């Protein structure tokens, strides 16, 4: 593949986005786990839960800071690398991002300071409220960002204005309650909860292997396994919901993930494994499970899931329809207020297909001059890379089911085997710490790579979205980002390892005070002085 302006812009954005997404899942999950731990501390008044809150909260804080730094950089890229995209759909895409900054980001940024510096300033209940506000802010932030991204996947609540040559919002309600956005939000945050649960589980298992901080480790495993089991189950259920949503909003993405070249009679089978050949448009050595794809994609046994070849033919028809809209648009642009009503009526009738005409810009300056061969080539461009999507999806799903098994096992040992964990299981828990990040990155890859060749599905091709930068500018900034982010990654890992080695903060005086009261209650001698009981 020839590397040009658009490819380098995509590479740079993919690098920053996927690096930023290293921090997002852990931030989402740890914020909730820390709030849960502090709630238990408030309810039980046991210092161990305060120590757990402080320890895991410190790791959350390190991760939070790095996530904020990389997220801000990524948002600036919309204006720098994707200026035409920002101009074309900024009225819609910018609204959720603005709300995210004004509502969610300021909420979590304000209260995260109170969380770390308010231990001696706030009551226990007040501090627990702060912890929950930090968690709510983090998840609200994800909500608004995924609403913006969900609109790119399923552009509802907006229409193209031929007089301004831009997309404009027609229904904020439709944008916010976009079915793709809602499915993406719950699926993404659940994946974040799993990531944090596996992280807490793995670090706690390491402490047990080292025979350190065993009280904290066992309680942390109990919380993480319960929370992680519920989250892992929800990831699978909500992933199924995303598949059903894609069956009528992003049919080509679903067909590419499945490597379904031809439309099968209903209900379609699911290809468990195989080797997609995009050039030959077939999948070699495919192992199929009957009916499963039909049930996932249509929730029925009677509706078909369209294959790639039929969708390419449909795209060719949409390109030809889009040319009608494009021709009318050029007349409106030239004649402005003098445009005949019938021309505007023609544009309105075919405007939904306008984006498909823009696919021809890759081959010809004026889409109306495109040949039949170029139209066929543009239709073929609507097929994303099938093999990468096919395998990324299957590895992600396989990891998702493995998390259910891991969390179920540790939940069972924590609740029904007196928190006794075989050493092999502890080694396994440590070994799988990186795997939820792999699953999360693969999920993000499937969502974004599967949308190609569109920046906004069916509306704006990626090839038209990029800024007019030089190749040298992109190479220099890409190298700069790689260098800078590599340094940040080393700092992040160094700090995380440092504080994990250091272990939980021990509030010795408070712990001794609570232990003395507890021992006194056991002896029924609560009236004795604490100092005497401590002796």
Automatic annotation (TrEMBL):
EC assignment: 1.10.3.-
Annotated compartments: Cell inner membrane
Protein name: Cytochrome ubiquinol oxidase subunit I
Membrane-spanning segments: 20-43, 55-72, 92-117, 129-152, 190-209, 221-239, 391-412, 424-447, 467-491
Any Gene Ontology CC annotation: cytochrome complex
Keywords associated with the record: Cell inner membrane, Cell membrane, Electron transport, Heme, Iron, Membrane, Metal-binding, Oxidoreductase, Transmembrane, Transmembrane helix, Transport
Family: Belongs to the cytochrome ubiquinol oxidase subunit 1 family.
An annotated Gene Ontology molecular function: electron transfer activity
Membrane topology: Multi-pass membrane protein
Coiled coil: none
Highest taxon listed in the record's lineage: Bacteria
GO term, biological process aspect, one: aerobic electron transport chain
InterPro entries in the cross-refs: Cyt-d_ubiquinol_oxidase_su_1
